[in-house]
Write a structure and sequence with these properties.
The chain has 218 residues and is of the alpha/beta class. Helix content is 44%, strand content 14%. The protein has a 6-stranded parallel β-sheet, with helices on both faces.
Length: 218
């Protein structure tokens, strides 16, 4: 049985505007001005706790407030995780094709599981995924390979691919020894050359044929 496992933020969903909104609401409640979208995007990838840590560092705020401000940011984000977000072009059609081809699908994200599930439901995407592993589902997060390996094990897959958009996703796949497909249109900070050993796509219509060819390769 073959499995395709996807990152969420910056891969299937353009979620940065809602993350930015939650961060800026938290900052406003603290009497601090907003961060622009590009800055917030540069913080995405290692989970919400790390994102808030980067916000505090950038604004030179005391890290001893991290726990309280993380909880506040997460609460604000959970109130409307998909108000400004949207699936990338071609995502729904691609998932329909993969499902029709008999592939088993999962999500492996550093986003907390609750908002990840909520976003999937809001866009009627939960029907495609048998397994959703969030950043708080296990004691460790990506780039530790355990969350990705956990997805493969739960799906009972004999072969798998991981599709993501960031350095964290690439490193996770490498550590798990799972082939990686890099979506160019996401939230990466590194140049595309960083992903030299990955297969690249810039539109999701190309994914079913690429996945089929890779999974058929001995």
């Amino acid at each position: 049985m073959n499995a395709l496992i996807f990152d969420l933020d910056g891969t299937l969903i353009d979620s940065a505007p809602d993350i930015q909104a939650a961060v800026n609401k938290m900052l406003a409640e603290e009497g601090i001005g907003p961060l622009d979208l590009a800055t917030v995007i540069s913080f995405i990838g290692n989970g919400m706790p790390k994102l808030v840590e980067r916000v505090l560092h950038t604004l030179q705020l005391p890290q001893d407030r991290h726990s309280a401000l993380y909880e506040k940011t997460l609460l604000l984000y959970n109130q409307a995780p998909s108000a400004l977000s949207k699936p990338y072009e071609g995502v729904i059609e691609m998932l329909e094709i993969l499902t029709a081809q008999g592939h088993r699908l999962a999500i492996c994200t550093n986003k907390p599981a609750e908002p990840a599930q909520q976003i999937l439901q809001d866009f009627n995407l939960e029907r495609f995924f048998e397994v959703v592993v969030g950043g708080d589902s296990l004691p460790v997060k990506k780039p530790n390979p355990a969350p990705l390996q956990h997805c493969v094990a739960r799906l009972g897959a004999s072969a798998a691919l991981y599709i993501g958009d960031s350095e964290v996703d690439y490193e996770t796949a490498q550590q798990a020894q799972i082939p990686f497909i890099f979506f160019i249109g996401g939230y990466r900070n590194a140049a595309a050359a960083f992903f030299q050993n990955a297969h690249h796509i810039d539109q999701f219509s190309a994914l079913p044929a690429l996945a089929d060819s890779l999974l058929k390769t001995p």
